[in-house]
Structure formats: C-alpha cells, structure tokens
Amino acid sequence: MNKLIIVNPPDINETRFSIRSYRFTDLHAVRVIYGDDEFARPQLLQKYPQMREYLADEASHYYTCYEPESILVAEAEGEVVGALLGAVNTTRYKHIYKHHVQPLLIRRCLSGAYGLPIWLLPVIQTELASRNVIAPQVDLRQYPAHLHIGVWDNWRRQGIGTSLMAGYTDYLRQKDVAGYHLYASSFHPLGMAFYRKLGLDVLGEFTWRLHNGFDWMTVTEYIFGQRLNKHSGSSQSTGAGSSR
String of b and e for 142-159 (b: at least 16 CB within 10 Å)? Predict the structure, then answer.
C-alpha cells in the first residue's frame, strides 16, 4: 500500500494527515483506540478501566498479530488518530479467532491480566441472550473481506474515515478481492450515518439484546457491504453473519 497524503480543506482543519500501512510501533496506539467503548458500555468502562485491555485484545489481537498487512492507520501531528482493521478472508479470521484469540482471552482473564473481571458478567449475559439470535448470512463468496474502523472523536468529520475506507478498498482491489462487509449497531448513530453516506449496500439486519452493565438494551444490527469485482474471485463458502 502506497502512502497517501491528504490535505484537509482550510475551512475544516489546516492540519495534514496521512493514511499509511500499519507498523509494529503503532501497536499501542491501535490498542488504545480499540480499547475504548464509547457507545456500547461507556459507564461500565469508566467504573472498571482495566476492561480496556480486554477490549483491546478482543477487538485488535487477530489483526495486529495474524494479519497486520491489512491494517491502515491515520496519522496526524505525529500521532495515530484512527485505524482500520481489515481481514481479507473472513473464514480464516473466524478459524483463528476461535482457536487462538478466544483461548487467549480466557487465559488472560484467569491470570488476572484484566484485573478482577467483575465487568465480565454483563458480557456473559449478553452472550447468553444472543444464543438464539438468527443473523442473516453473508455470502462470503461475494463479500469475503471485513473491517472495523475507529477514529478519535476530535478527528472525526475531517475526511479520515472516508480516506481509510478508500485506502482499504484500493488494497482489496489490488488483491482481487470480490467485496467486503461490516457490521454497524444502532447504538452507534455516527457509524450508521457514515456507512450510509458512503453508499454501501444493506445486506441485512437483525436485533439482539445488550446488557451494558446497568440495563438491557435492544440493538438493531445492520450488515453493510460493497462488491468490488464483477466475479467473486474467492473460493470461500457462505458463512455466518457475524465476523466478530
């Protein structure tokens, strides 16, 4: 991936930012971004700050350890202010997540790496409540890749998210990937509006229940996607809806 330099319009911000490939030295910054829980359980995170390490492992460990070449970061003023975590092959991601990342999370919980995991109770409650949820299947022959994107709040609405998405799309096209998909939750209205603005197709939606540590919430999950090539170009079989 070539380094892209984007200059913001003067009426928004005169600071230049760049979209570039991930480097190992970006690890801490990426973990900080994905260790935040601004929308789902912010109050729980405030009460139990060691939960950040769990969130960072859960959200970023696969990408930084098993597929760092598919990560893009946004850099401004010498700091990483946004990151896109991508996976070219969601089937491979699911296999590695199940057999390597999940056991790591369990080991770290038991070892005390995340402190006394009292915060884990609402996570478990949510998992149990989701067992009977039937999510629409994503055709991984047409949408084999997936992504997550995070940008610090004080750098949003300045073109960084759009530039990260454009860079990732170029990267997938270079690898002849048929398409990508992603998930957006109704408790994240900014993300919902962003993906709709990009013109992504809505592949499906479903509802599930989230316990935020204090109350139950009913969440509508939307699946967005974009085809990149006329032909699938992928031998992956159709898989389940969630890539998490």
Answer: bbbbbbbbbbbeebeebb
Contact 90, 66 (CB under 8 A): no
- Answer whether residue 244 is part of any domain: no
* Digit-coded pLDDT (tens) for 168-195: 999 999 999 999 999 999 999 889 999 9
pTM for this structure? Answer: 0.86
- List, for residues 82-125, the tens digit of each pLDDT value: 999 999 999 999 999 999 999 999 999 999 999 988 999 999 99
Domain count, the chain: 1
Specify the pairing of strand 145-151 against strand 71-76. unpaired
Read off the CATH number of the domain in which 101 is found.
Answer: 3.40.630.30
d(CA 38, CA 124): 19
Strand partners for 21: 72
Backbone angles phi, psi at 101, to 5 degrees: -75, -50
Range of the domain at 193: 4-227
What's the Cα-to-Cα distance from 197 to each of 116, 167, 192, 193, 200, rounded to whole Å?
41, 17, 9, 6, 8
